[in-house]
Write a structure and sequence with these properties.
The chain has 353 residues and is of the alpha+beta class. It is found in: Cytoplasm; Nucleus. Its main location: cytoplasm. This is F-box only protein 32.
């Protein structure tokens, strides 16, 4: 039944709500409560002020560390496989981007694997040429961290120096054009950070130029001690003509073998099609084809045939991207028939919508 009489809290008296219910208070108690509330509010304000000041100091310190490049950005994910989805569905929202795939896949361990090293380097080079602005800020930081690891590995192992030099030069030229011509808006982060990273690239290039390859300390049989037929057989397995030229500069005997016409003919037929070769024929005064000159001329006009010991695989049934020696949760009856190798350019093309 509703209360219809005078307000039971009676005018002129103050009531305060407590855990036990409403209680009457006098004016003095009310004033004390008001002062207590004000003091608590002042203390709360002071605490928030101190916290905000400390947060500002921490933010300034982080910014200073980033400008000095003294903080190391961690490697974010080391997933063995990722699901590549290009659109939103009822089961999945969003889509997978190039930067997300670059962050999540285990490229850090791939650098240490000699079978995958050239694959990762080629992928870094393709990203440096045209895809760097499309990466998120996190992916751009991760890119520079992986690049730093690659350079450190080359300096320690003293191997694969030339492709890393080409990668650094390509990246430096791309960054110069992005910073100067297109403006800093295409690169995520402070412009001073990217200037510092460009200085690091120049420093890495200088370190690679000053690298001195140490002679092996073993006293056993070397490449020069082998018969000429075995030396020629080994040279036939080289897939880059620049390696043949470098090998021919070791000694006069290898220089003669490096000029073998059959070596350069096999290189031309391996990397280029018959139609491409017919358009670039070079005949010597004696009527012979100059296969060595044709090879380098074809290299300037057409891309090389890419060859990698291990690549990423893409399952057309599950739309999963994974490394070749790792399993993925495939639901197909014959999982091997659904998996196709993915080249570095194919990896980038997967995320073009």
């Amino acid at each position: 039944m509703p209360f219809l009489g005078q307000d039971w809290r009676s005018p002129g008296q103050n009531w305060v709500k407590t855990e036990d219910g409403w209680k009457k208070t006098t004016k003095d108690e009310t004033n004390n409560n008001v002062t207590d509330l004000k003091s608590k509010e002042e203390e709360y304000y002071k605490e928030n002020l101190i916290l905000s000041i400390s947060c500002d100091v921490a933010a300034k310190k982080r910014k200073k560390d980033l400008l000095n490049n003294s903080t190391k950005i961690p490697y974010f994910h080391r997933d063995k496989w990722i699901y590549v989805h290009k659109g939103s569905t009822k089961e999945r929202h969003g889509y997978c981007t190039l930067g997300e795939a670059f962050n999540r896949l285990d490229f850090c361990s791939a650098i240490k694997d000699t079978r995958r090293f050239n694959y990762v380097v080629r992928l870094l080079e393709l990203i440096a040429k045209s895809q760097l602005p499309s990466l998120s800020g996190v992916a751009q930081k991760n890119y520079m961290n992986i690049l730093e690891r690659v350079v450190q590995k080359v300096l320690e192992d003293q191997q694969n120096v030339r492709p890393i030099k080409e990668l650094l030069q390509t990246l430096y030229v791309s960054l110069c054009s992005l910073v100067q011509d297109m403006g800093k808006s295409v690169l995520v982060g402070n412009i001073n950070i990217w200037v510092h990273r460009m200085e690091n690239i120049l420093q890495w290039q200088q370190q690679l130029d000053n690298i001195q390859i140490n002679r092996p300390t073993t006293t056993g049989m070397t490449f020069l001690d082998l018969p000429a037929s075995l030396q020629l057989n080994i040279m036939q397995r080289l897939s880059d003509g620049r390696d043949l030229v470098s090998l021919g500069q070791v000694c006069p005997d290898l220089s003669v073998l490096a000029e073998d016409r059959l070596l350069w003919k096999n290189l031309c037929q391996y990397h280029f099609t018959d139609r491409q070769i017919r358009k670039r024929l070079i005949v010597s005064d004696k009527g012979h084809l100059e296969w060595k000159k044709m090879y380098f001329k074809l290299c300037r006009c057409h891309p090389h045939k890419e060859q990698y010991a291990d690549t990423l695989q893409f399952c057309t049934h599950c739309h999963i991207l994974f490394w070749k020696d790792t399993n993925h949760p495939c639901t197909a009856n014959n999982a091997e028939s659904c998996c196709v190798p993915v080249s570095p350019q194919g990896f980038i093309n997967l995320f073009k919508f």
